[in-house]
Specification:
Structural class: mainly alpha
Oligomer: single chain
Strand content: under 5%
Shape: elongated
Helix content: 40-55%
Length: 54
């Protein structure tokens, strides 16, 4: 639970705040879904060369 928050949030209607937070969460989910899987990342960026293929 947060120990502090921005008091300016008190000026927003609860439904408006819920909408803003939901849009932010959905944006983060969309970005995360576009990322490669762990295996895909390792294959692309960390693949070791085959022995003897110098």
């Amino acid at each position: 639970m947060p120990t502090r928050y921005n008091p300016a949030l008190d000026t927003l209607a609860p439904e408006k705040l819920k909408t803003i937070l939901a849009k932010g969460a959905n944006g983060l989910i969309e970005v995360a879904e576009k990322q490669p899987s762990h295996d895909q990342f390792l294959e692309q960026y960390c693949k070791a060369p085959m022995p003897g293929n110098n």
